[in-house]
Design a protein that fits this description.
- The chain is of the alpha+beta class.
- It has one domain: 2-Layer Sandwich (HIT family, subunit A), CATH 3.30.428.10.
- The chain is about 20% helix and about 20% strand.
- It contains two helices and five strands.
- Strands 1-2-3-5-4 form a five-stranded antiparallel β-sheet, covered by helices on one side.
- A hairpin with a 3-residue loop joins strand 1 and strand 2.
- The protein is globular, with a radius of gyration of 14 Å.
- Bound molecules: guanosine-5'-monophosphate and zinc ion (ZN).
- The site of zinc ion (ZN) has 7 residues, from helix 1.
- Zinc ion binds next to helix 1.
């Protein structure tokens, strides 16, 4: 259960297992899962186990956990393969409707980019 949580928040419900998700990696501070409407195959979301709407609402101990977890996911999702297909990825984090945020629980998108789909998940 998130330390700070909102009973109506879909991502808090995902952390608590009240809404199913395709879980990837989890730590004491963070939870990651596949996006339900992926921009590309393997599109992942990384969220703090702390309910806060925007980046500046999240305590540092949670934020500090996010990038190492994202780095591990890069390997899990196979975004780190060198080669002629030019694999890479985007890490995105939106704050506010004007910045295209739809879910008001901070989340980082990890979006694999491939010239050729390699079927890694
Ligand atoms: P935003 O536009 O807020 O940065 O991104 C929200 C993301 O959350 C979207 O990419 C959307 O597909 C994803 N999303 C919304 N609801 C759910 C859900 O219930 N489960 C999962 N796995 N992803 C969700
Ligand atoms: Zn929440």
């Amino acid at each position: 259960t998130p330390i700070a949580h909102d009973a109506a928040c879909i991502f808090c419900k995902i952390i608590k297992g009240e809404i199913p998700s395709f879980k990837l990696l989890e730590t004491k501070y963070s939870y990651s899962f596949l996006d339900i409407q992926p921009t590309s195959k393997g599109h992942a979301l990384i969220i703090p186990k702390y309910h806060g709407g925007k980046l500046h609402n999240i305590p540092d101990e949670y934020l500090i956990d996010i990038l190492p977890l994202t780095k591990k996911l890069v390997h899990v999702l196979g975004c780190d393969l060198d080669g002629p297909t030019g694999e890479g990825y985007n890490v995105l984090q939106n704050n506010g409707r004007i910045a295209h945020q739809e879910v008001d629980h901070v989340h980082f998108h990890l979006i694999p980019k491939r010239d050729k789909e390699t079927g890694l998940i």
